């Protein structure tokens, strides 16, 4: 039984109603004031992270009007721990998050490794309110009596739409990611971080799909136009597939969604079986930005990949997605492996890391550094959002974990 202001994970729908509450693990948002009046409203947002598809960090108060949801670790109250960078993959902010727990329990605290998680149960929509929200959105689409006009505002959301065989009326532009060729002649609405709202409005979309990490920036802009929107939490592979599942229901692409999900489940079961006897190295993940870096926890996409690969994040007991920690504290964790990823501008970030590891004396005292177990992750596979390159990413991690 939900308490009045309780927020649940694993919903991906966030709604735009007045006086609605958020239920984690849902991903979309609706527009009218009266949809469900069961004491719980249709304010679900679809976010999924680690351990399944966990929605990020919902605000504890009721959203005032059209409300979206955050993903498990990208803070929903709009507090960034890092600076935004327009050149970042999908233009997503790295944000701190709290309240990523379900019924007060943080997934990452309960599970030391995503490898222990039952993928099938993670993808199953068991919450009745989440299910009701998805069905309600589906009805809205059906009532249009035509194909909905949809805009995908990031490369990751565009890729998902492509895989689901969904036509778009508008799509983002990107200099760092390739937009699916089927959208070559579709109206460009600007970058993921800064969509041109005049163009967006001129497209007259019925739905706008965006990554949930940009909710705090984009929600006010979407509220100004007459449309439905959905913020997908792409902070984990599981979350991406949960989003796919619910989008399939809403936009009548269940056959395509089921095919993608079955492919993922089959892949992961095989991957887990092949790697169950492998060691589980303790891993420190550094996410670099030009001039600085932060720690990636299991609640980030890179952290999710590390756990799926069997690694144990040395900051696994943290609810936030990213955090700032001094090197002395990192040394106390004594990781077996140090992984370095780039939020943006990979060449500059790698140079920054190399310079810091040479100049900062403390690094030479890390066992991982002494043993040469410091690896730079491929920028195209380890971005801020879950993508279909996760298989290649896991293969790269497996290779890094087995290197001696």
UniProtKB/TrEMBL annotation:
<keyword id="KW-1003">Cell membrane</keyword>
<protein>
    <recommendedName>
        <fullName>High-affinity heme uptake system protein IsdE</fullName>
    </recommendedName>
</protein>
<keyword id="KW-0732">Signal</keyword>
<keyword id="KW-0472">Membrane</keyword>
<feature type="compositionally biased region" description="Basic and acidic residues">
    <location>
        <begin position="58"/>
        <end position="79"/>
    </location>
</feature>
<dbReference type="GO" id="GO:0046872">
    <property type="term" value="F:metal ion binding"/>
</dbReference>
<dbReference type="InterPro" id="IPR002491">
    <property type="entry name" value="ABC_transptr_periplasmic_BD"/>
</dbReference>
<dbReference type="GO" id="GO:0016020">
    <property type="term" value="C:membrane"/>
</dbReference>
<feature type="compositionally biased region" description="Polar residues">
    <location>
        <begin position="93"/>
        <end position="102"/>
    </location>
</feature>
<feature type="domain" description="Fe/B12 periplasmic-binding">
    <location>
        <begin position="149"/>
        <end position="404"/>
    </location>
</feature>
<keyword id="KW-0479">Metal-binding</keyword>
<keyword id="KW-0349">Heme</keyword>
<keyword id="KW-0449">Lipoprotein</keyword>
<keyword id="KW-0408">Iron</keyword>
<dbReference type="InterPro" id="IPR019957">
    <property type="entry name" value="ABC_transptr_haem-bd_IsdE"/>
</dbReference>
<dbReference type="GO" id="GO:0020037">
    <property type="term" value="F:heme binding"/>
</dbReference>
<keyword id="KW-0564">Palmitate</keyword>
<dbReference type="GO" id="GO:0071281">
    <property type="term" value="P:cellular response to iron ion"/>
</dbReference>
<comment type="similarity">
    <text>Belongs to the bacterial solute-binding protein 8 family.</text>
</comment>
<dbReference type="Pfam" id="PF01497">
    <property type="entry name" value="Peripla_BP_2"/>
</dbReference>
<feature type="region of interest" description="Disordered">
    <location>
        <begin position="58"/>
        <end position="111"/>
    </location>
</feature>
<keyword id="KW-0813">Transport</keyword>
<dbReference type="InterPro" id="IPR050902">
    <property type="entry name" value="ABC_Transporter_SBP"/>
</dbReference>
<dbReference type="GO" id="GO:0015886">
    <property type="term" value="P:heme transport"/>
</dbReference>
